[in-house]
Specification:
Elements lengths: L6 H30 L7 E3 L14 E7 L3 E2 L7 E5 L6 E8 L3 H16 L2 E5 L9 E15 L2 E14 L5 H4 E12 L5 H31 L8
Parallel strand pairs: 1-5, 2-6, 2-7, 3-7, 4-7
Antiparallel strand pairs: 4-5, 7-8, 8-9
Helix pairs in contact: 2-4
Length: 229
């Protein structure tokens, strides 16, 4: 005599069978899609690249300077390679990016160039916990490609403040605050061309900033105020 499973067991077996069939179908579909999928798209990363500007040999300021990490305007506060195709428009290259945030990049190159110039007894980075008499702060206010008809330029704008940390009064503490802006023509109208033109802009701004910092700090240092730390 043929035995029959109880109805509840038959229903359970049917549910399990259908579940396994469904999972098998999903797995098969996933394998098919994986086999037919496109390879990942390459995203190219760019950096500024230029030799440190040469500065005239001058008497060294007998104290140190610290370069703080520059802040960045929100529109450029990411590795995106931003360009302005027309007035009131902002876009970014899809498969090209900066290797690091513009604020970090501008700070690091200015720090490198200050050390290369040799105009201060020591140049310290923002991650150094020690204190120096002079402190350089700044903000990147523009870091983009600007397209105006046939005129394509890499625009770099920064605001820089030099402080004398030995002074309590703000009027004496701030040696100067100044805006710097440079627009360099993009010869090769590609992201690589943007990186090259932005490098030239950074080189020129770096030379100007270093010269102004030296001219402001040198006379103040002659007062021989003691170091704060």
């Amino acid at each position: 005599m043929k035995e029959h499973l109880p109805y509840s067991q038959q229903a359970a077996h049917l549910i399990i069978f259908r579940l396994l069939a469904f999972l098998g179908g999903v797995l098969s579909l996933a394998l098919v899609l994986a086999g037919c999928g496109k390879p990942p798209v390459t995203v190219y990363k760019h950096l500024l690249e230029y030799p440190s500007p040469e500065t005239p040999r001058r008497a060294q300021v007998p104290t140190g300077i610290k370069v703080e990490l520059f802040s960045v305007a929100q529109a450029y506060n990411s590795p995106a390679m931003v360009y302005r195709p027309a007035s009131h428009q902002s876009e970014a290259y899809r498969y090209h990016r900066w290797r690091v945030n513009p604020g970090q990049m501008v700070t690091d190159f200015l720090l490198r160039d200050l050390r290369h110039a040799g105009l201060f007894k020591a140049v310290f980075s923002y991650d150094n916990t020690g204190k120096t008499r002079f402190q350089l702060e700044g903000a990147v206010e523009e870091f983009q490609e600007v397209n105006a008809g046939d005129n394509w330029t890499a625009v770099l704008a920064v605001n820089v403040t030099l402080l004398d940390t030995t002074k309590e009064e703000i009027t004496q503490r701030v040696l100067f605050q100044k805006n710097y802006r440079c627009a360099e023509a993009i010869i090769n109208r590609t992201p690589q061309g943007l990186a090259a033109a932005m490098s030239q802009a950074m080189q020129k701004l770096s030379a100007s900033i270093i010269s102004d910092v030296y001219q402001a700090a040198g006379p103040r240092a002659s007062s021989k105020e003691p170091e704060t730390g």
